RNA sequence: GGCCCUAUCGUCUAAUGGUUAGGACGUUGCCCUCUCACGGCAAAAAUCGGGAUUCGAAUUCCCGUAGGGUCACCA
């Protein structure tokens, strides 16, 4: 049985690179009927924090990446296990205790444990890159533990992978050079060698390893920005992998069904926010209305609810208009905060010039159109934007669409750019539509004459 | 610098010896259109360079070049 692992170090937020590695381990294991285990690599006491472990666990779960060990393995709790293997290795002569100056606290003398390097050439087969050979001589007698009770990363990884039955190690390309060290330790301990697969890195626009200085790298930040977990998963999967078909939008299940390690790339992939946003829109489009409404309300700026005409019915009518444009919930929030949707919940105010438009339509024309529209709309079918459109389209077409529709839209929304007048009228309802036409007439047309 | 990895449109990628080098994002143009969007159609846009093998190379090999990763008593 295939067993993969996801071994984050809880020294920071859940990095999208970590999430991507976790995803590939998950997809590889699940697509082969195997398992994935989670291990917290918290041996660095100074930098590891429980909050980070919690954020990583929650973030991965939010994305739908779960693991098969009930209890998370924590390296900080396995000191005795490492000590046992250390002592065993020293007994066999594979490691030795070395008395030297401490690098951690200079001036002190400590007894570190070093590997007795056999100085050989090691070749391992990488599932993605083929055979890779290193001469380990340059590694020297590497330190594997600060003391018998304080094993270091390479040692703990090797011991835990062995004890947890890990068969396949899928990790970032930045670990390639770590592999020969770990193989040396495995061989010193008499362990078997797992299969390795080094994934291409996620790159920033400048093609260097994506890091904090390039902007948002934490999964949490994208979740907050309103990216859907399914979209994050989808986009991450496409960075370095593709199914060999033109399909680009996937559910998690489709990913599991189609994932093949042979289709994983060798070269790094630049993280492209634009494409990510587009992917998110595709997933947004696949939500049903109730799901979308719930999502929208979670990201809705509170200020809108304080507007005088705010009610849920209008929000529901506004939803399709928002939905057709928004690529992320952050877009919606931004537009809402810029006042683009205020018209739905309060009477707009605007300049007469805006009402007249670029062509500086005579106010007498606007008065004539509005008088007609008022009487027509007071009897029109308001059950849908299309019905409203049907009621006034012929008139607008005859009189000049721009001449009729532009001032109508401005009277209803007060904005240079807004949803179309049919949707706008539908959102605010018949009474409010008539009222706003009246307002336009008294405030702008009559005053201006 | 040593070691290691990589190299197809700006970006993500398809094509595993024979294609007008395909698709997607983005960009540009056109259509739709009262505005902003959405949508539809179209266009521009790539095999890093040089050798070798071969009837034939994006694809195999070699040499360059470029980019990246890594060189801890961090993980």
Report on this model:
The chain has a 4-stranded antiparallel β-sheet with strand order 4-5-8-9. A 3-stranded parallel β-sheet has the order 1-2-3, with helices on one face. It has a two-stranded antiparallel ribbon with strand order 6-7. It contains 19 helices and 13 strands. It is 48% helix and 13% strand. It is elongated, with a radius of gyration of 32 Å. The chain folds into 4 domains: 3-201, Rossmann fold (3-Layer(aba) Sandwich), CATH 3.40.50.620; 212-285, Glutamyl-trna Synthetase, Domain 2 (Glutamyl-tRNA Synthetase, domain 2); 289-344; 352-448, Orthogonal Bundle (Arc Repressor Mutant, subunit A). Helix 4 (153-163) crosses helix 5 and helix 16 packs across helix 18 (421-428). The chain has 449 residues and is an alpha/beta fold. The mean pLDDT is 95. It binds one RNA strand of 75 nucleotides through strand 7, strand 8, helix 4, strand 13 and helix 9.
Distance between the termini: 85 Å
Low-confidence stretches: none
Largest sheet: 4 strands, antiparallel
The CATH topology of the largest domain comes to Rossmann fold
Q: What's the count of strands? A: 13
Indicate the topology.
Elements: E1 3-6, H1 16-31, E2 35-40, H2 50-62, E3 73-74, H3 79-92, E4 95-101, E5 109-115, E6 121-126, E7 130-135, E8 143-147, E9 150-151, H4 153-163, E10 168-172, H5 179-189, E11 195-199, E12 202-203, H6 219-224, H7 229-238, H8 252-258, E13 269-270, H9 273-285, H10 289-299, H11 302-305, H12 312-325, H13 329-337, H14 352-356, H15 363-377, H16 385-399, H17 401-413, H18 421-428, H19 430-448
Parallel strand pairs: 1-2, 2-3, 10-11, 12-13
Antiparallel strand pairs: 4-5, 5-8, 6-7, 8-9
Helix pairs in contact: 1-8, 4-5, 7-9, 12-18, 15-17, 15-19, 16-17, 16-18, 17-18
The structure holds one RNA strand of 75 nucleotides.
